[in-house]
Fold:
Amino acid sequence: MNLSEYNYHLPKELIAQQPVRPRHSSKMLVVKDKVEHKKFSDIVNYLQKGDVLVVNETKVLPARIIGKKDGTGGKVDLLLSFPRDEYYECKIKCTNAQPGHKLVFPHGLNGEIIDKEGEIYHVKFNKDVAKYMQKHGTLPTPPYVKEKLKREDHYQTSYAKKKGSLAAPTAGLHFSKKVLDEIKKKGVKIAKVCLHVSFGTFNPIKEDDFRKHQMDPEYFTVDKKTCDVINNRKGRLVVVGTTSLKTLESSDYSGGQIQPSSGWSKLFVYPGHRFKCEAEILVTNFHLPKSTLLLFISAFAGKKRVFDAYKEAVKERYRFFSFGDAMLLFKE
Structure:
């Protein structure tokens, strides 16, 4: 249970800065009985009639707004998260932000920092910041992405529908409408869940014993229609991304069948976790060293298999992280 065992060497040049186009043209490392090198569009050949493909239809909010500190004029880079009764929870990049500081944004928006809990600031605004964000905000991208996106819709899945995330469910970025149509024609059903990704997706684990790590809450929902599709499937359960799998694992079950569920999940999946859902295949990206997501997929597919696959991916110059290439992981 030592975090150092989940580290690996990654050359910086393998951290993808822009997504490939078309979406399905990325590479895909298939981890089954042996490792295979494919294009993502080949995923159709690994799916069978009767399978159910579970996707997360969350949509990334334009939650980043840029302003300045009143008085000093210092730049303020603010990421909005959950609204509370009188304030928003935010992350702020600026010099020495403290409670009592006033913030000024374009188009008449003003804010005041009223409190701070750890790295999270509580900011009260003078107008409806949700409407302001939709009109003037930009999509937040991961801290390791240094280049500006060529188009903001490149950081949304082709099936994104429900606004609420601070990051994209990146395994889904590989699915073009063309590939989804081919998957449906093969007799695979699509089941939609929703989990809104929070700040916690980028929070590092600070404890050597990673079991002590606390996850930020993330809101999820699974409706009856989706439950019926999953419970009545004739084939395998194929899950797109750790967010979709986390949603299934956070849901209620009765008699081995998933039930309509919603709420705030703080589930932390790491090796030793006993999965409730019967997922057999996971579509995922390549994750950061010592991250919660690397622990998650190690729990699903086995640490040795995952790390052997990562070693192969580095050797073959796969692209890593949010805009990188894909893995097709068969359960251990």
